Predict the structure of Alpha-1,3-glucosyltransferase.
Amino acid sequence: MLMRALGDHAATLLIIAVSLLIRLGVGLHSYSGAGLPPRYGDYEAQRHWMEVTVHLPIQDWYKNTTDNNLDYWGLDYPPISAYQSWLYGKAIQHAEPEAIALLISRGYETSSSKTTMRWSVVISDILVYIPAVLACRRAFLKDATAEQRAWMLFAALLQPAAVLIDHGHFQYNGISLGFAAGAAAAVATGKEMLGSALFCLSLNHKQMSMYYAPAFFAHLLGRCLQRPTFLSKVGAVARLGFVVCATFACVWGPFLVPPSRAVGVLSRLAPLRRGLFEDYVANFWCATSPLIKWKQLFTQQELVRLCAGATLLTLLPAVVQQIRSPSEKGLLLCMASSAFSFFLFSYQVHEKSILLALLPVTLLAPELPALAAWLPAVAAFSVYPLLKKDGLSLAYVALLLLWAAFTLPAQANRTAVTGRTWMHGLTSCGLPLIFRTSVGLALGVHAAAAVLEPPKRLPYIFDALITALSFLHFAAAALYVQILMWRQGHEKSQ
């Protein structure tokens, strides 16, 4: 009702303004590793990368030297993250040089430097993520109502997990996610070469964007195969291949000579030495580890192969569907399906990687209103052990209450863009009951953790319960997205 009364432009400005205010509000809370020497946390990692990139020559950014001890938060993201660290580091150096002084600024946490660091994440969203979401809205919701367009914008900009992780815990996921969203928007509007270049930028900002690579590959290959002649098919593939190679060459240029330098950077990006999983991540391997001791049963090499096989097997149906029948919304569904496969089954998954599955689901919010309302809440619940450790419990509760107040009640009677929601079948089977059960279980775990002492033999039992419960939700969502993909492809072919 409010969005209809405001109008499209006013609603857009209001949602963006609210999303920025909430980001700034979350930034007033604690962050990863605050006041916890000797290594602190992700906040310190980002600050340290600024210190390294500003003071050291580019050939030493990923290299273990006297001034760059890689055991202390060595750079382990691709070059665009390093360039971003250099750019923000230069700005912070101008404002407060002590914040990134070489070797002597570890754990630097003045209020002014923290404010500057927090603003750098907000500015990243303003420059990359928010414009990309707006581009997706234009590309995918051409025939939508103002209310549906507002709902999509709200879902993409205010889903709690992304806000809490980037602006609470402290990360710059909005940049890589923004490039990926911009790539999807470009491809959907026929700008396939631009879309390929933007996705390469996403991949070169954070390697976890690889979760989307099968979806973009399948969709773009499917489009190329729809060309009328063999030569036109080959030409289309060649043009995209050239764009990919040229983009990578531009990004990696400073690291390509000598070739050993590029190999050194690549070795920093592969997380194989870190084990199957860390902490409590709501994927298959972690959720089943209390029953099956994967790390004891298999060697590291065997686990890597096992994870790769399971990931490829589960993402294959979505890839095949997009090669056979590529479509605009099919691309977003394939991105979600591929991201779920990687999150649930690949090697060395971080709990924050669930953001990659959330992005395409929220971009499809008018088509999948119930899933777009429910899944972000589950995702925030799944990362609560991380948020609790960072001192973000209050922000977590506040954002979930805000999310529930504005999304869950409104979804019962919401219709999709097409006038017939793909969620209709699930809704008629008792979606309100599913919601109530899901919320009840989550509240039950939180209540038990608040009032009960965990057994001495199982000190992390409540974190394990959060992991197991979230995994069941994500597995069900992944299966449902696969079903939607094939149903959408079948409807398109008729």
In short: Confidence is low (pLDDT under 50) at residues 415-430.
